[in-house]
Amino acid sequence: MDLETLLLSLKTITPVFSLILLGVFLRVFHVLHHEDASLLSRMVFRLFLPILLFRTLATTTLPSTPPVLLVLVILLPLLGVYGAVWGVTKGMKWNHPGFLASASTWSNVAILGYALGEAFDGSAGLARAAMFSAFVLPLHNVMAFWGMKRADEPHHKHRIFWNPLMVAIVAGLLFSLLPLSLSPPITVLLNQVGRASLPLALIAIGASLRFHRSSSWYLPLGVSFVKLVLLPLVAYVFGKRLGITPSWLMTTVIGFACPTAISFFVVSEKVGFPPSQGAMIVSFTTLLSPVSIGIMMTLL
């Protein structure tokens, strides 16, 4: 392993995770309460991040890579690891294999993936991360709702594709294809909102983390290994074998190396799983992800 590359990667991601840690401290010292963190998360999801994504995709030219290869590099590892966890869990007589399979594959690409993409490769990295999320977010939702027995609810089916992030991604891509340009005042406004988006989103993640006393440490640790090590490694192998561009390989590996999304905790709690289990998985993967992401970057 190249120690210099590892240290450079850790130096790059330190500011990102420092903001998450700041959110944790704000929650611990009661500067932000649970209600404040929920409000901040809704503001980021419904307003700030959509504006950032629209501005980025509307004004950035994406590096090209064959679409079929990119879809395969994303789809095969995601479905393969999901199916493997499902099968192993089922073989161990666990009653809810969809819970662990979803926890092991549902990445926090909608916030942390964007921040890391921008940290490593500027606006082009952010744009690729947005494109990556446009493909995997619906898959995460479909797999989770199906695996945790939510596919029969029309309300959730509707939200899989119709949410502010998906609308902003589609709108930004369409705008970039048209012979249009943003006026200077609008550009300034979008840039100002965009600069605030990711710091607020990262603080909201930290403030939303929950820790519970539990004797079952093996469960979140096992999920952390699959989510932070196995899934990105499988994506790396597929990407190298299929020959996608280095920039898209980096985006894919980082996207899959992101911790389990807080959305997973929200969904699992709503369908009746113990809140402590989902909270511990999200918290463990988030706290361990800086090391795993730094190590993964040494492969690229």
Helix/strand order: HHHHHHHHHHHH
Number of strands: 0
Q: Any idea how many domains?
A: 1
Instruction: Return Rg in Å.
Output: 18 Å
What is the typical, i.e. mean, pLDDT?
A: 82
Q: Determine the CATH topology.
A: Na+/H+ antiporter like fold
Assign an overall shape.
globular
- Terminal CA distance reads 11 Å
Counting helices, strands and paired strands, the structural category is mainly alpha
CATH class annotation: Mainly Alpha
Stretches with pLDDT under 50, minimum 5 residues: 150-155
Return the CATH architecture.
Up-down Bundle
Helix content: over 70%
**Largest β sheet strand count, sense and barrel closure:** none
**Separate helix tally:** 12
Strand content: under 5%
Model description:
- The chain has 300 residues and is mostly helical.
- The protein has one domain: Up-down Bundle (Na+/H+ antiporter like fold), CATH 1.20.1530.
- The chain is built from 12 helices and no strands.
- α2 (34-59) runs antiparallel to α8 and α3 (67-91) runs antiparallel to α9.
- The radius of gyration is 18 Å and the shape is globular.
Topology:
Layout: H1 3-28, H2 34-59, H3 67-91, H4 97-103, H5 109-147, H6 154-161, H7 164-177, H8 184-208, H9 218-242, H10 246-257, H11 262-270, H12 275-297
